[in-house]
Amino acid sequence: MTTNLVIRGTMLFSVGVFLALVLNLLQVQRNVTLFPPDVISSIFSSAWWVPPCCGTASAMIGLLYPCIDSRLGEPHKFKREWSSVMRCVAVFVGINHASAKVDFANNVQLSLTLAALSIGLWWTFDRSRSGFGLGIGIALLATLATQLLVYNGVFQYTSPDFLYIRSWLPCIFFAGVITMGNIGRQLALYEYKVVQEKTHQD
């Protein structure tokens, strides 16, 4: 059981690191985020600590979602297949891409659009109350952590419009939480099916 948990955590960490590298590259290329020159040390133009932090958060979220489902006695059964999970990842990347590449008339329009897309992602691929609640809670905590980092000069946003950061950032965090939660649930379901098959064979 512990071994399976470590394997799932490692896989989630790897996915989180990969997505962080790809998505942060989009943000830096668009000059949405700016890191000090001495901090930028990789070919991905990203601070070295960003991918590990995102990977760790992804692992925690991906392991937490199925655990909460189990504790609440509400197993998540909506669209439980890998094709759905991959579409969820694609939509999340699309939402992040839109925040960096699409030009909107103003920040309010951008924030409202991303909020609608993020909630749409939850409705399309999750629809659980626990998923929505965790998504909101973790997104708020992540936003607060980002504000503290910016306030302390670790990095900055080019056009902050809400307490040192961009007002659409919580929407990106929410969509990311829902995405990693879906991946975590799918991995847990796969593990459960493997254990069930071995039990039947024995």
Automatic annotation (TrEMBL):
Gene name, per UniProt, is INSIG2
Q: Name one GO cellular component term.
A: SREBP-SCAP-Insig complex
Q: Name one GO molecular function term.
A: lipid binding
Upper taxonomic lineage: Eukaryota, Metazoa, Chordata, Craniata, Vertebrata
Provide the species name.
Myripristis murdjan
Q: Which UniProt keywords apply?
A: Cholesterol metabolism, Endoplasmic reticulum, Lipid metabolism, Lipid-binding, Membrane, Steroid metabolism, Sterol metabolism, Transmembrane, Transmembrane helix
Q: Where in the cell is it found?
A: Endoplasmic reticulum membrane
- Recorded protein name is Insulin-induced gene protein
The membrane topology noted for this protein in its Swiss-Prot or TrEMBL record is: Multi-pass membrane protein
**What is the predominant subcellular site recorded for this chain?**
endoplasmic reticulum
Q: Which domain of life is it from?
A: Eukaryota
Q: Name one GO biological process term.
A: cellular response to insulin stimulus
Keyword Transmembrane applies: yes
